Description:
Strands 1-2-4-3 form a 4-stranded mixed beta sheet. The radius of gyration is 23 Å and the shape is globular. Strand 3 and strand 4 (238-242) form a beta hairpin. Helix content is 66%, strand content 5%. The chain has 12 helices and 4 strands, in the order H-H-H-H-H-H-H-E-H-E-E-E-H-H-H-H. 21% of the residues are buried.
Amino acid sequence: MAVAAAVGGWTLTAALLWRTAVPGDLQVPALAARDVFPPAVLAETDRFASVLRGLWLASLVAELALLGLLAWHGPALARRLRGGGIARGVALLAATLGAAWLVGLPFGAAAHWWRRRHDLTTLGYLDWLLAPWLGLLVTLAIACLAVAAGMVLARRLGTRWWVAGGPLLAAFGAVVVLVQPLVFAPRFEPLEDRALAREIARLGAELGVPGIEVRVRRVHDRTRRANASLHGIGPTRRLILWDTLLDGRFTEREVRFVAAHELAHAARRHLWKGLAWFALLAPLPALALAHGTRPRGGLGEPGAVPLAVLVAVCAQLALL
Length: 320
């Protein structure tokens, strides 16, 4: 009975989240890329994207092969480490993620060369290697906390730890989204164009989301691509404009359009809906981790950590 109620509640929640506020009679004009761009540009674009897809696929295959090897030797590797079980599990996780980063490095360097060749970036290889250090450290810290929490639950609750692990993973994701803008705050600068700031504030008020802080992210020394994004929820919500969007290549109307697009994410509560979907799906990877690590004694065993990483990567691919 409890299982039926849980399945029913899950289905109802998914159905409510699936609903959209887009008008059913919305008329979208037909527009094909070939009507806007020359054939040579489209052909070069396809070639550019196909090379990046190939590099990503090759990197994925190499990563899966490495994780499979580490998962096979996980217990032996764990026995070589010192400390308690959870400490050894976290250390093995850091080593596994470090090895995966090293395996993917040649493919990333090739992708960077390909982007440099197409004038999408002028960043040197050393700067490219060192630029994402803050994001990598934050990702590593989050992963270590998640694995430590999972190991504690697995040791206390046994094979059914995923029942509590799913909601804990959802809460963890909400905290990450909440604090992300604060962690990366040093990389953001105020928007100096006061007229544009007032116009974006007016757009936010018109969409029903007034008071969203606008910040500029300095990326022109790394890429020529332009972008914008919405970060955070509640008090940490920020609209981030890349400085490449403000370098004069785009008209004020185009910048306003991009800003309005990001503000619409806030107006339609897309970040909240994304968190709701994450909470709804969180039990699935937790269940996959619980069952997938059984051959190594479950997630509570430090030697099962590399296998857990392999299962997590496969679960992520399945959800994609």
